[in-house]
TrEMBL record:
CDD domains, per the entry: PrpE
Residues covered by the Acetyl-coenzyme A synthetase N-terminal domain: 4-58
GO CC annotations, alphabetized: intracellular organelle lumen
GO-annotated molecular function: propionate-CoA ligase activity
Domain AMP-dependent synthetase/ligase: 62-446
InterPro entries referenced in this protein's UniProt entry, alphabetically: ACAS_N, AMP-bd_C, AMP-bd_C_sf, AMP-binding_CS, AMP-dep_synth/lig_dom, ANL_N_sf
Originating species: Halomonas organivorans
EC number of the protein: 6.2.1.17
Name of the protein described by the UniProt record: Propionyl-CoA synthetase
AMP-binding enzyme C-terminal domain span: 509-588
Length: 636
């Protein structure tokens, strides 16, 4: 039996023994004696009698162990022309003082704090300061519009909002403060205070509720770490579901810390003192787990990058960072490499840098498409690892475990189940599907440490969304299959979630926004293939009877509406006006069929279709936009 197989079997057959060993790697204030218990709904609760503080485990502990002078954060911001190095001692001290500032504003254990910031070290400081106090942070990605922020403020009811005055994109400065003000205005719930990090690119006007970050931090006394129960929430991270209301994924503290620490070793093969670079954003789960908590819990150095894979200034940006900071493991989404490949197809810029420190490249967030995989494999001399996970699980479900036992890579596969995750493929009836047969990818309960423990204030939705479909199993929402060697192939979502440039978005939510326009009678939003972003949304709308405006204006208004309500991150840029939409006789829009039509794939017409002639309407509209032919992605 291979090393991996032995470890995997032990994690599934004796989960409590396995995770008891891993728990010893963290500095607890009270070591757990019970490893696993279940709540009244039958969901796993790891380490229920353990207590710790994750900020202590990520910072103070390393300082105590003699890592104080080592770099904790290396910030590199080509968009502002700045860099900064923060040692573990410096980061701990700034976090402690900022925690003191939050405390001064009344933030206590259990209170929520919303963080709306770009990729600056202060975003990490704010997160860790919350963890220090036992407060629950909720980071919102900067590409979301005021409405999305307002929805999260209403749901999380934060005592304080922490923001930056602006974000800086490739070619422009984006003021954040007006977005925060508009969101608070729209929200029925009002936070007590807003802390603003003033950036020189665009200073914000401060009002009565606002506090200047710098003066607050300068005047604050350092706060001590507050031990919390392992099962207490560390953060709530909102993610797209099938409806307009995002799901507040609740992450616990102890199980998450143990799982991340394990993953840093077993999956990423990282040792203390080594440099980890995850090119994502703190607004996403990748940022939470592998820019902030994972690397710091393991005593590594984390690279925090405020820039893009291309255009800041060129497609060699990642190679430069890897070379300059001697990065050992690098993690990003495949879309970033598709962008690089487009600008530098021969990898000429790579040759300008010494990337010999790099030992493995990890990709996730969307499927690693075989052309991108092969391009990278040919270019680099290190393993190119696709690994699969989601906001809900908080860490990889399937991977090629570089620190345990590297395995041969198969293009298109995320390799094997990570120890702790009992991954199964079920058919419609809930039976195990045979090898190579596609089905619903589920995880047999109990979920390992680190996975979501609920949906914020909505236990019914938690159950309905994840646990109800197949009792005893967690529904991932992905379809896929296992091959004869146990390699997992993830083939796409089974719900209305789409993946645009590695960002998870809900077409259901976009439909609600499009359908809310006064001229729209009915609509469907589908995700279609895009050569760069993986998928992009396209709207199909039926105008109301009597609509006499121009289609061009309607399209422009709908695009602006989605941008205003959801945000630029939605990438909603195309609307087709049609007379009819294909539906079943029971009135369900045939979205999958529309998707296949738009992607130029073969499609069968179901016998349940109500009006087969509706297909020619849609076909014409698609043809007019060059959708539906095999090379449409390139033409667009
Ligand atoms: N704050 C404000 N606006 C933001 C933003 C932020 N943090 N991030 C993105 N946006 C805006 C962009 O400016 C863009 O606006 P535009 O329509 O006015 O141009 C829009 O949101 C869409 O952004 P994006 O999808 O990122 O497109 P892009 O063309 O700017 O960049 C990639 C494309 C592929 C280079 C980029 O998406 C990327 O680097 N992706 C990496 C994947 C990643 O980080 N995934 C996270 C999970 S691993
Ligand atoms: P998020 O919650 O934003 O991380 O998105 C999670 C979803 O992205 C998953 O449910 C998958 O649909 C998709 N995804 C993430 N990583 C991969 C991968 N390596 N292969 C295929 N799909 C992926």
């Amino acid at each position: 039996m291979s090393l991996y197989s032995r470890e995997y079997r032990r994690s599934i057959d004796q989960p409590e023994v396995f995770w008891a060993e891993q728990a010893k790697r963290l500095p607890w204030t009270t070591m757990p004696r019970t490893m696993l218990s279940y709540d009244d709904q039958g969901h796993a609760r790891w380490y229920p009698d353990g207590e710790l503080n994750l900020c202590h485990a990520a910072l103070d502990h390393h300082v105590e162990q003699g890592r104080g002078d080592q770099a904790a954060v290396l910030w590199d911001s080509p968009v502002t022309g700045s860099r900064r190095r923060l040692s573990y001692v410096e980061l701990r001290d700034r976090v402690a003082r900022f925690a003191g500032a939050l405390k001064g504003l009344g933030v206590e254990k259990g209170d929520r704090v919303i963080i709306y910031m770009p990729m600056v070290p202060e975003a990490l400081i704010a997160m860790l300061a919350c963890a220090r106090l036992g407060a629950v942070h909720s980071v919102v990605f900067g590409g979301f519009a005021p409405h999305e922020l307002a929805v999260r403020i209403e749901d999380a009811e934060p005592r304080v909002v922490v923001a930056a005055s602006c974000g800086v994109e490739v070619d422009r400065v984006l003021p954040y403060k007006p977005i925060v003000d508009a969101a608070i205005e729209q929200s029925a719930y009002k936070p007590d205070a807003c802390i603003v990090l003033q950036r020189e690119q665009c200073r914000a006007e401060l009002e009565a509720r606002d506090h200047d970050w710098a003066s607050l931090e300068a005047g604050a006394a350092p706060a001590a770490c507050v031990p919390v129960k392992a099962t207490d929430p560390l953060y709530v991270l909102y993610t797209s579901g099938t409806t307009g209301k995002p799901k507040g994924v609740v992450r616990d503290t102890g199980g998450y810390g143990v799982a991340l620490h394990y993953s840093m070793e077993a999956i990423y093969d990282m040792a203390p003192g080594e440099v980890f670079f995850s090119a994502s954003d703190v607004g996403w789960v990748v940022g939470h787990s592998y820019i902030v908590y994972g690397p710091l819990l393991r005593g590594c150095t984390t690279v925090v990058y405020e820039g893009k894979p291309v255009r800041t200034p060129d497609a060699g940006a990642f190679w430069r960072l890897i070379a300059e900071y001697r990065v050992k493991a690098f993690f990003t989404a495949p879309t970033a490499f598709r962008a690089i490949k487009k600008e530098d197809p021969d990898g000429t810029l790579l040759r300008e840098y010494d990337v010999s420190s790099l030992k493995a490249l990890f990709l996730a967030g969307e499927r690693l498409d075989p052309p991108t995989f092969h391009w990278l494999e040919d270019l680099l001399e290190v393993p190119v690892i696709d690994h699969w996970w989601q906001t809900e699980t908080g860490w990889p479900i399937a991977a090629n475990l570089q620190g345990l036992e590297p395995m041969p890579v198969k293009a298109g596969s995320a390799t094997v189940s990570v120890p702790g995750f009992d991954v199964r493929i079920l058919d419609r009836e809930g039976h195990d599907a045979p090898a190579l047969e596609q089905g619903s990818v589920v995880i047999k309960q109990p979920l390992p440490p680190g996975c979501l423990t609920g949906i914020w204030r909505d236990p019914r939705r938690f159950h309905a969304a994840y646990m109800a479909a197949y009792p005893g199993y967690y529904l991932t929402g992905d379809a896929g299959y296992l091959d004869e060697d146990g390699y997992l192939f993830i083939m796409g979502r089974t719900d209305d979630v789409i993946n645009v440039a590695g960002h998870r978005l809900s077409t259901g939510e976009m439909e609600e926004v499009v359908g809310g326009h006064p001229a729209v009678a009915e609509c469907a939003v589908i995700g279609i293939h895009d050569a760069l972003k993986g998928q992009v949304p396209v709207g199909l709308v039926i105008p109301k009877d009597g609509f006499d405006g121009s289609e061009v204006d309607l399209e422009r208004e709908l695009i602006a509406r989605v941008r205003d309500i959801i945000g630029p991150v939605a990438c909603f840029k195309q609307v087709l006006v049609v007379d009819r939409l294909p539906k079943t006789r029971s009135g369900k829009i045939l979205r999958k069929l529309l998707r296949h039509m738009a992607d130029g794939q073969e499609y069968g017409v179901p016998s349940t279709i109500d009006d087969p002639a509706s297909l020619s309407d849609v076909h014409e509209a698609m043809k007019a936009r060059s959708l539906g032919s095999a090379d449409q992605a390139r033409q667009r």
